[in-house]
Design a protein that fits this description.
With 338 residues, the protein is α/β, with parallel strands linked by helices. It contains seven helices and 13 strands. The chain has helices at 107-118, 135-138, 154-165, 239-250, 267-293, 298-304, 316-331, and strands at residues 14-15, 63-68, 71-80, 83-94, 97-101, 125-129, 149-152, 181-182, 186-191, 194-199, 211-214, 219-227, 256-261. The longest helix is centred in the C-terminal third of the chain and has 27 residues, at 267-293.
Length: 338
C-alpha cells in the first residue's frame, strides 16, 4: 500500500474526550471542524472505514482524540489504490516524556504527527513502539528524535533490518530505524508515574505484532491486529494464530480497543467491531478452507471466493487474493513455525 500523497496541513483539532457513550461519526459544526461532540447510540454509528461515506473530508485530518487524560489516538488518511482510509497511531503524554505507538507511512506524515504532539505537550518523544513493522507504520520513523528508544518484537526487528540491508534499496529512500530494545513477550515501562505494558499476544498480522496496554486506563492499542471494517490483510499474516491473538486481547480487562486502521469510535462500538473483525478473519479462513478442500487451485479459489458481507469492506479488491493465498500456505504447512 502506498503512502497518502502530500497535501496542505489542516489545523490541529483535538476532539472531546471519548466516554463510554458512543460518539457521533458525523462531522461537527463549522465552528469546530473535525470535532465530535454529539452523543449517539451505537446503532447510529456508520460501520465503515470509508471516511467519505462517514461524511469527512481530507481537511478533517489528522483526527486526534483524547481517550483518557494524556492518552491520544491519532488518525491520518492514507491511500491504497483508489481507496482512502485511516492509519491510526496512539501517543501517551507523561511528565517524563511521550510514548508513541506506531508511526505513520512517510517522513512527511510522521513529521506532521510529531508536530501535532508538540502542539499538545512540550514533553519530548522518548519512546517509540513498533507494533507493526509494515511501511505504513514505520516508513517515517526517522522523523522521531534520534535519542528516542525504539521497541519491537525480534521478528519485527529482523524485518526492518532486512529492509535496511536490502542492496537494491533506492538511495533516496528514507532511513530505516532498526529498533534495539526487543520485547519477546512482555515489558513493563513506568513513565511519569504511568504504567505502560508492551505485550506480544501471539502472531497475527505481521508475526511480530506488539500491543500497548495501559492497565490503569484499560486501553489497548492493537495496531494492525485490529482493522476496523478493513478487509483482513494477510500478506504476512498467520491466519489461525491471528484469531487466537484477538481472543487473547478480548480476554483482557479493556475498555477501549484501539485499531491500527479504520476509525476510532466509541468504546462500545470498538469492542463490538473487534468481535466483528475476529469473525471476519474466521470467515476468510473458512472460505479459503472450503475452496482448498474442494481441490481448487489458488487461482481458481481467488476467482470463485465469496465473502458475503465482507465484499463491501474497504480494501476487499486488493487484499482478498492475498488473504486466500496466505490461508492456502497455512493449510499446506508452508508458513514458518512459531
Amino acid at each position: 500500500m502506498n503512502a497518502a500523497p502530500a497535501k496542505p496541513r489542516p489545523p490541529l483539532v483535538v476532539l472531546a474526550p471519548i466516554t463510554l457513550l458512543a460518539l457521533s461519526c458525523a462531522p461537527a459544526p463549522d465552528d469546530a471542524p473535525g470535532a465530535t461532540t454529539t452523543h449517539a447510540t451505537a446503532d447510529d454509528v456508520l460501520r465503515t472505514a470509508d471516511p467519505y461515506t462517514r461524511g469527512y473530508t481530507d481537511a478533517d485530518f489528522p483526527r486526534v482524540q483524547e481517550l483518557a487524560p494524556g492518552v491520544y489516538s491519532y488518525e491520518q488518511l492514507r491511500s491504497a489504490g483508489d481507496e482512502r482510509f485511516t492509519t491510526v497511531s496512539m501517543f501517551v503524554v507523561t511528565d517524563e516524556g511521550v510514548l508513541v505507538a506506531d508511526g505513520q507511512g512517510s517522513p512527511e506524515e510522521t513529521r506532521l504527527m510529531v508536530e501535532t504532539i508538540a502542539g499538545i505537550t512540550d514533553r519530548p518523544i522518548t519512546h517509540v513502539v513498533v507494533c507493526s513493522d509494515h511501511g505504513d507504520h514505520t516508513a517515517g520513523n526517522s522523523e522521531f528524535p534520534t535519542d528516542a528508544r525504539f521497541y519491537a518484537h525480534p521478528t519485527s526487528q529482523a524485518v526492518l533490518q532486512a529492509v535496511a540491508d536490502n542492496p537494491i534499496r533506492p538511495d533516496d529512500a528514507p532511513p530505516v530505524v532498526v529498533p534495539d530494545h526487543l520485547v519477546e513477550s512482555r515489558e513493563t515501562l513506568h513513565l511519569g508515574g504511568r504504567e505502560i505494558q508492551l505485550l506480544f499476544l501471539g502472531r497475527a498480522h505481521t508475526g511480530g505484532d506488539l500491543v500497548v496496554y495501559l492497565p490503569a486506563e484499560r486501553i489497548l492499542f492493537m495496531s494492525e491486529a485490529y482493522l476496523n471494517r478493513v478487509f483482513p490483510a494477510m500478506r504476512s499474516a498467520y491466519p489461525s494464530e491471528w484469531v487466537a491473538m484477538i481472543e487473547a486481547a478480548q480476554a483482557m480487562v479493556v475498555d477501549i480497543y484501539v485499531p491500527g486502521h479504520g476509525f476510532v469510535d466509541s468504546p462500545a462500538v470498538l469492542a463490538e467491531e473487534l468481535e466483528t473483525y475476529r469473525q471476519a478473519v474466521v470467515q476468510v479462513i473458512a472460505e479459503a478452507n472450503r475452496l482448498h478442500t474442494a481441490g481448487l487451485t489458488l487461482e481458481e479459489a481467488i476467482a470463485q471466493a465469496d465473502f458475503g458481507a465482507l465484499e463491501d469492506w474497504s480494501l476487499r479488491s486488493s487484499q482478498a487474493s492475498r488473504a486466500i493465498g496466505r490461508v492456502y500456505m497455512e493449510l499446506n504447512g508452508e508458513l514458518p513455525p512459531a
